[in-house]
Write a structure and sequence with these properties.
four-stranded antiparallel beta sheet; five-stranded antiparallel beta sheet; single chain; elongated; Immunoglobulin-like
């Protein structure tokens, strides 16, 4: 038994040394190459070397909307293909303002996946105030279509909404 183990170890050692002495071209032909997936990313360096990674959008629109007692401006970004490797995404950044003494301003974000419309409220501002409107969503199965934002407000004169803005408006 000891002799069998010794012979096995010797054969393994010979095999390893044979691989180590192969020319570079011979050893690289044995390696299977796998596809490399590259995602668009940028790295932002902030003070004290803390780092944050952010997607570079496939599509992006700078939008704004103004109606009585309300204003919103921001950036709508979207992209991806709805796969586990490159999920579809929507990202919204901006600021909403209510410019009246009473009432409110509200921003709606709408999108569709396959026969499944969604609408969220990423921003709200009370009387004479403002707030940020950050929103981010992603999907590893579906892609997004009919993406738009709409600004609405309400005051003593009633409820109103502006035009839909975005690629699906």
């Amino acid at each position: 038994m000891k002799r069998l183990v010794a012979v096995s170890c010797a054969l393994i050692g010979i095999g390893l040394s044979a691989i180590a002495t192969l020319p570079a071209s011979a050893s690289t032909t044995r390696i299977q190459q796998r596809p490399v997936v590259v995602q668009h990313q940028i790295t932002i360096t902030m003070g004290n070397d803390s780092r944050a990674t952010q997607r570079v959008p496939l599509y992006e629109q700078s939008l704004s909307s103004s109606i009585q007692c309300a204003h919103w401006s921001g950036i709508l970004s979207w992209g991806g293909n709805g796969s586990p490797v490159v999920p579809a995404y929507i990202q919204l950044e901006g600021v909403i303002y209510d410019t009246c003494n009473n009432g409110w301003a509200r921003l709606y974000l709408h999108w569709d996946t396959i026969n499944n419309p969604k609408e969220v409220n990423p921003g709200y501002a009370g009387p004479n105030s403002h707030s940020n409107t950050p929103y981010d969503t992603s999907d590893r199965i579906n892609t997004y279509k009919d993406i738009w934002v709409q600004l609405c407000s309400s005051d003593h004169a009633g409820y109103r909404c502006g035009n839909k803005k975005g690629p699906g408006a």
